[in-house]
């Protein structure tokens, strides 16, 4: 057993097998009575094997499931071990992942960076990729979650689709990258503000940031349409990130956030892991003694197959639940400088030239309204406490409307 657990990181959950909870048992029995498709896996299960599911969600759909089975099942397949079950629960708006071994289920997983993408009466498109470490799950062209193997993936022999869906089509083939992009999930070009802002105009820039914060904090603005997440922005060669240019991101942290992330990367794929010049991620999971706005900040880069220059620290920021923000990442001569609401938060030394970056990837617990490239030597902090500093501190003390959209 110890050897088994060392090879498969999720195998430790084998010791936590349990009987299904009442809701899961209800959906399991309901779906089992509506077996829509049984598919025998002909290809040898190995990393790169991709399953694509397409079908129609019934107008009265409560639940449907995709089961990856360890052997070709009988008509009921009650005795089959399940490497992975993806269960879509439409009334609760979440997707579960779990495994069954010897008739008992392990701990259920249901969290994701991606908002719920499935709707009654509409078609759905899922891609599940097999890798050495895990299953990768994509919904409607966006990466949804990964599921660490709890059993050897080589046991895979069949797939069942059950529940309130119809017109199911299953395709399998080997791929070299993931996910497959649909038209609506392709990266969108990032707008570029060509006006150059000189150092002496930095005060105007600061007032512009403060104006944006005030605008985004108003109740009326909360109803403005936001950019879909995860967000993939395309950077073209003529507006590449070079010294003096900056990326400006305007948005609002959700009321009950866990984390969000911003990545400057080369390539839009999730697998294999693309080269990342700069990765920034605030985590808001905190103890009761931490101040609101204090977050665990991770920054790092991914080069030559490994994460490098990784720093994790707890910093006081003006990022807080329900609060608007303007994040500006400036390209200096040898490092990125990141500002949150006009305050310089940290420097991150280049591990790769920023002009090689062609994708900005933003995901997590935020509302996103604007992402633009600015051509300037933006925001050089003056020494001492300025009138702008006092204005921003006054803004921080104002009450932000506590409304979640």
Automatic annotation (TrEMBL):
Keywords: Lectin. It holds the Pfam family Gal-bind_lectin. Residues 37-176, 233-374 form the Galectin domain. It comes from Drosophila suzukii (Spotted-wing drosophila fruit fly). GO terms for molecular function: carbohydrate binding. CDD domains: GLECT (cd00070). This is Galectin.
